[in-house]
Specification:
Two copies of one chain form a homodimer. Chain A is of the alpha+beta class. Chain A is 36% helix and 23% strand. The structure holds a DNA duplex (30 and 30 nucleotides).
Chain lengths: 245, 245
DNA sequence: CGGTCACTTGATCGTCTTCAATACCAGTGG
DNA sequence: CCACTGGTATTGAAGACGATCAAGTGACCG
């Protein structure tokens, strides 16, 4: 079951210079807790790397030796059963912090969907960083808390929603992606394939496909080229997602 | 939809004396992060209260005005859909900390299964406590992390396991309850009814009942008086729970 | 003893899965 | 230019698992 460990290619061990200063992800990540003056310290604690599409860079069950901060690209996080069944726990994009809730061994696997760049923090250095910058620990607690909320929402979806409701919920969540607290955009691109969506929603590829076709026929959404989505009826979709329809 | 807010009965506002010193839950809770010398400070930040069986003391969607630490009893945590479908997210017992991941409004509801005693920390006082005892914040991060891991495990269960596998997983989890890192005990009592189990596992009462009957017939477990359980075949149950059977 | 409540058991039904075929698209080479 | 290939998505038909509906059992209690 366990896939061979594909080791990431290390690009540049962060040096005394400060690559963090110009990091696109910093604003959106836990690194925002580190003041500008200490960026060199932050940079020296991390190593940046790249994972090619399809590469697994965190393996469930393997010793947890560090933390990850995604600086670009998209990652699927998942758990597997011995017979190959897969449950995708979430998708991580720019600014996402991985490795939380990892006492000894990683509790999930992470695989690059497209080309993924990330910073890797060895466990000990992360510990030291947290000791010096309590604000970062507080930020981490916020992150963990919001992940917990998201996980609970997903438990409701997986345990109690129908296929239609799951797909509707997913589409709405995707439309909100990126646009933090702003207005969700009615047009967006799916970053993952049907298999990913199915394994995220606890369905099969076929059911996802059928459901999407149906939602389109009903005028709730519109899909072109399998990944370009437009929300046509926001409130209709919201009612469906919340089981009010 | 929303149940009328049943306000908890406040027993004693913690005073300068220190009820925390003799608290059974302290060892198992985030309060262990507070040194003995500062127990008075801890006690003055909290108010202890009791929730009668069936009482809802956290309401999803309502303003989050504080945190809870369970000192005795068992609580069901859940989310609901407008039409009444319920997903139980977990059960909280002695030492459990509630209110994490709560920015503005509570993201879940909490209901006492039996008589529940708890300490309530108003938001502001909790904030102050965390500022003064960074160790407590660290402890909170650990708690949040382990809850996240548990939630992810449950997502796998809800999304990808069969009814048999779910029930088997649940029974094993229950047998491990309490006995932290010790050997799981082969005999235990279910603290919740069939409806709770069903709503926790994303099944119906009938399916849970049927499945339990079958597992019993197969000699994997034994149930007496509907709530006294004995594990008869641990490894068989484990194989089933992990989908290896 | 009737009533309630929680659980169990049975019969039928529906949703989603499974299995299988087909469509679609990009890339490759004749 | 077009057949060929491989990967991904769609569509169709049949089947299974769990849900729903309904009845029955047993414990507890006034």
């Amino acid at each position: 079951m366990t896939v061979a460990l594909a080791r990431p290619i290390v690009i540049q061990p962060h040096g005394a210079a400060s690559p963090c200063a110009g990091c696109d992800a910093r604003r959106a990540s836990v690194c925002q807790a580190i003041p500008d003056a200490d960026l060199a310290r932050l940079a020296s604690a991390a190593v940046s790397a790249v994972a090619q599409p399809g590469t697994t860079f965190i393996d469930e069950g393997y010793p947890a030796n560090g933390f990850f901060n995604i600086t670009s690209g998209t990652v699927r996080l998942f758990k597997m059963l011995p017979d190959g069944r897969r449950q995708i726990l979430g998708f991580a994009g720019t600014g996402h912090f991985l490795g939380l809730g990892t006492p000894e061994n990683y509790g999930l696997s992470a695989e690059a969907i497209d080309t993924v760049r990330y910073c890797w923090f060895p466990k000990a250095r992360m510990r030291a960083l947290l000791d010096d910058f309590p604000l970062m620990e507080r930020r981490l607690l916020e992150v963990a808390s919001s992940e917990l909320i998201a996980a609970q929402e997903q438990m409701l979806l997986l345990g109690r929603k129908s296929a239609r409701e799951r797909v509707a919920s997913f589409m709405l969540a995707q439309s909100r992606r990126g646009s933090a607290c702003q207005h969700p955009s009615p047009r967006f691109t799916l970053l993952m394939n049907r298999a990913d969506i199915a394994d995220y929603l606890g369905l099969t590829i076929e059911t996802v496909s059928r459901t999407l076709t149906k939602l389109q026929a009903e005028g709730l959404i519109e899909i072109s080229h399998t990944s370009a989505v437009a929300i046509r009826n926001q409130t209709g979709l919201e009612n469906l997602a919340e089981g009010r329809a």
